[in-house]
Amino acid sequence: MKKHVYCRHSHELEVPFFDVDAMHIVWHGNYVKYLEVARCAFLAGIGYDYNEMARQGYGWPIVKMDFKYVRPARFGQRIRVDMAIVEIESCLRIDYTIRDAQSGETLTRAATTQAAVSMETGEMQFQTPESWLNAVRRHPTFQAA
């Protein structure tokens, strides 16, 4: 069964020298940062960044993260993080493909799941806050399920 994609977003960046290891490839832990940079760009684009989440009374911690490394990224390489937002109603789940920006070759596949947590009580929310749903619906590529 094919997943529904609520919206898509892409973000490009260049691999900096301080992200590579002794083998001159991106150290595996830095891929987490690339996902976060792309996710922050998406959130800023819908006007619901982490500061706005807090103003609305919610934190959104990562509760699950998966990676599949296909090919290494290297210093100076332009990469594109393609995001597909695949769940918005019970959590925020995003599938990612990190690609070489020029060739489109897949380098890494990943997925993150974030859950809304009340800042006041610390309790996980089992339904996504309406403020979040309204923000996602404003994204230009939004497609209702």
Structural class: alpha+beta
Largest sheet: 5 strands, antiparallel
- SSE string, helices as H and strands as E: EHHEEEEEEH
Q: Remind me, CATH topology?
A: Thiol Ester Dehydrase, Chain A
**CATH superfamily name?**
Hotdog Thioesterase
Report how far the terminal alpha carbons are from each other: 14 Å
| Annotation field: number of helices | 3
Shape annotation: globular
Low-confidence stretches: none
Number of domains: 1
Q: Care to count the β-strands?
A: 7
Keywords: Hydrolase
Family: Belongs to the 4-hydroxybenzoyl-CoA thioesterase family.
Protein name: Acyl-CoA thioester hydrolase, YbgC/YbaW family
InterPro entries: 4-hydroxybenzoyl-CoA_TE, HotDog_dom_sf, YbgC/YbaW
In short:
With 145 residues, the chain is of the alpha+beta class. It has helices at residues 30-45, 50-55, 130-137, and strands at residues 7-14, 58-59, 62-69, 78-87, 92-100, 106-114, 117-118.
